[in-house]
């Protein structure tokens, strides 16, 4: 097996680790095509006896002995590297280090270099494995759809911009990410918003991380490509706008059902995927009063979301309990496909004269805003109801309004100050 990789061996004096007598260890750095690892030589030398230019010990009674040992280490590494090149298509510094130390190498790739997949083959492998996880209920079908969409966009980019059907993993350079981003945002029709395009780059980066983990490439060439973009601020509906949609007299049955599903989302915070799959089994009775809650494992994060059933939600559940669709498919309310649902919501926005487009995700943001700023739920509770893994995600959904701060400050004033604005007298505790 042939490898065209290059080995560099460097000895250097780690003066930052010098002891009380000014003796510091000599370290050996192994570099293969820009990837580094360090090993200890077991040698120490005084800070005044190391020649930085020649990387040798000078003016020391042990200089010859130490320099001989360094030469021996370098020779052993070069021999081991030569042997590894006959066995593996790709060699990492860690592999060479382990060989030098007589540690067994655990390499997942096979000896035949043709087993290394191309980019599109690797994407296909990942999607197939992800699909098996979906079949076992360990991953979301919606996420699988997103991976298939990423595969389609990469294929489009390769075809239209690079004029190829596929590309070898080791032919991918750092610039690949920027070119892919420019295609998605500037050249593709329809083009993607910056945040959506960055999501595709993140997916590509994840694919190349898999390649690196399997040692099909030395390192991810786009690992340092920054995928951050400003979070677009989604302005939630005001409570009066939600009421306006709810009370609108509609004569078209499909718009009535879409309106009801949207209102259901606004008062539960469930994402489209979760509201689509809601059944009677997700209704749980809590406490001595048998209060009804919706309790469901969120499809995307597998985190349990728990929301008390508010009167308007209970009304909608009752409205559709005898619906043929809900009875046949064991659903709480009828919901269209994602595409039709969001298409009809745009039409509903025009009919209700809302003045901005409606979509299923906006309903989730509206719920978060109402819970936090109108009903004054703590952020931690809102996070649990939304099924978020961490509270930082919730902070992007529900930004604290000035009105909430004003209410809290008014409560604080009543506790600390009297009606005249004077600071109250407090007894020592």
TrEMBL record:
GO biological process per UniProt: DNA integration; DNA recombination
UniProt cross-references to Gene3D superfamilies, sorted A to Z: 1.10.150.130, Intergrase catalytic core
Name of a matching Pfam family: Phage_integrase
InterPro entries for the chain: Arm-DNA-bind_5 (IPR035386), DNA_brk_join_enz (IPR011010), Integrase-like_cat_sf (IPR013762), Integrase_catalytic (IPR002104), Integrase_recombinase_N (IPR010998), SAM-like_dom (IPR025269), Tyrosine_recombinase_XerCD (IPR050090)
Coiled-coil features, chain-numbered ranges: none
GO molecular-function terms, A-Z: DNA binding
Keywords on record: DNA recombination, DNA-binding
Tyr recombinase domain mapped to chain residues: 232-410
Signal peptide: none
Family per record: Belongs to the 'phage' integrase family.
Protein's recorded name: Integrase
Gene source species: Pedobacter ginsengisoli
């Amino acid at each position: 097996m042939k490898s065209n990789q290059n080995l560099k061996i460097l000895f250097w004096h780690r003066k930052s680790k010098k002891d009380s007598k000014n003796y510091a260890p000599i370290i050996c750095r192994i570099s293969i095509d820009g990837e580094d690892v360090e090993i200890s030589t077991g040698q120490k030398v005084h800070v005044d006896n190391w020649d930085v230019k020649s990387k040798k010990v000078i003016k020391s009674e042990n200089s010859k002995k130490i320099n001989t040992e360094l030469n021996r280490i370098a020779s052993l590494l070069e021999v081991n590297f030569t042997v590894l090149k006959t066995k593996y298509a790709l060699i990492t510094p860690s592999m060479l280090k382990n060989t030098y130390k007589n540690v067994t190498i655990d390499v997942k790739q096979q000896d035949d270099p043709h087993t290394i997949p191309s980019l599109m083959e690797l994407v296909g492998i990942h999607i197939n494995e992800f699909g098996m996880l979906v079949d076992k209920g360990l991953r979301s079908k919606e996420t699988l759809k997103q991976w298939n969409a990423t595969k389609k966009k990469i294929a489009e980019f390769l075809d239209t911009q690079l004029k190829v059907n596929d590309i070898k993993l080791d032919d991918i350079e750092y610039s690949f990410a920027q070119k892919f981003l420019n295609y998605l945002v500037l050249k593709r029709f329809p083009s993607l918003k910056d945040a959506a395009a960055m999501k595709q780059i993140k997916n590509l980066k994840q694919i190349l991380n898999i390649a690196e983990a399997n040692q099909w490439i030395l390192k991810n060439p786009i690992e340092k490509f920054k995928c951050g973009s400003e979070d677009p601020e989604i302005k939630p509906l005001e409570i009066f706008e939600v009421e306006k949609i709810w009370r609108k007299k509609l004569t078209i049955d499909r718009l009535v059902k879409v309106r009801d599903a949207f209102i259901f989302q606004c008062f539960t915070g469930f994402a489209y995927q979760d509201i689509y799959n809601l059944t009677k089994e997700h209704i749980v009775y809590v406490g001595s009063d048998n209060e009804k809650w919706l309790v469901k494992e969120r499809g995307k994060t597998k985190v349990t979301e728990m929301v008390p059933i508010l009167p308007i939600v209970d009304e909608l559940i009752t409205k559709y309990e005898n619906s043929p669709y809900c009875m046949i498919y064991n659903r709480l309310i009828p919901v269209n496909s994602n595409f039709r649902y969001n298409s009809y919501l745009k039409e509903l926005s025009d009919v209700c004269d809302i003045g901005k487009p409606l979509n299923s995700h906006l309903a989730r943001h509206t719920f978060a805003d109402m819970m936090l700023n109108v009903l004054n739920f703590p952020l931690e509770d809102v996070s649990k109801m939304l099924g978020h893994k961490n509270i930082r995600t919730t902070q992007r959904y529900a930004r604290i309004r000035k009105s909430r701060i004003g209410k809290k400050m008014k409560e604080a004033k009543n506790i600390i100050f009297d009606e005249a604005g004077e600071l109250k007298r407090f007894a020592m505790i």
